[in-house]
Input
Amino acid sequence: MIVLRPSTLHLITRRSVLAALAFGVLALPRASEAQRAAKVYRIGVLGTVGPWTTFVRGLQELGWIEGQNVLIEYRFTRGDMSLYPVFAAELVKLNVDILVTNSPGVRAAKRATTTIPIVMANSGDPLGEGIVASLSRPGGNITGLTTNVSRDAAGKNLELLKEVVPKASTLAFLFHSAVKPWRDEFDAAAKALGVTLRYVEVQGADDLGPAFAATTKGRADALLVSGGSFEFAHRRQIIELAMRHRLPTLYTWREAAFDGGLMTYGVNLGALSYRAAAYVDKILRGAKPGDLPIERPTKLELIVNLKTAKALGLTIAPTVLLRADEVIE
Output
């Protein structure tokens, strides 16, 4: 029989305690790291159409891999404005960790939650619409990016149309009823250019055909299309109608030029979605959305489709082509 002397027992017990403590000290951080690594964040994306490839790429470059440490719940309205509040409520019910959306999804998301962080991948005028307290320190649970460079953009769009169609005496502005045009700025710009501006409001896709017929009947010489989500979702239908009515048209999103539109002048929405990933990254790492300043785009892109110009019998002035960021031939 082996007899353990008190000193030996004390030594064994002491060694056991030290070993246990050492194991605990070493094991706790590893367990904590494993717990953090196992955390999978759920991101809700509420948009007009998909895919949001630049957003996903931005996340990947920051270490957030879909299916590994983030899951993305997509909801696309396809231009149906009534679906924004429905989908916003769905995503909130899923208890997403962060909600990424565009305008007008921002308003629906704000009504749906005051606690889940909301990142605006793009928004029209969040300050003017009362969505945030300020651009430098938005406060609350909302931050992100705005497409609002300045209200001068309204006048610049009309100037560009007039430059492309010098003899134009009547211009038209097509917008969805959910959009609030800067009428004062548009009216002032039209007056300065010596043209009449007609506002053409639609409430749904079925209104587009009659709207174009009325615009042509009203003898509009050129058309400006609002940059809202409804117009973006239905841009191919709008482009087709513009070509059918032989109406020179200026759009906001670059995609329209590659879909056959005459010209686009505006921000690169894909670039904004890419930047939105940086906001998501900061918030998931602990930043408060209300402390993150809202970014404005620093550049507007001008893209001209010469194929469409030729089909319309238009000659684009060299001054316009020289300013263009891209020319489609």
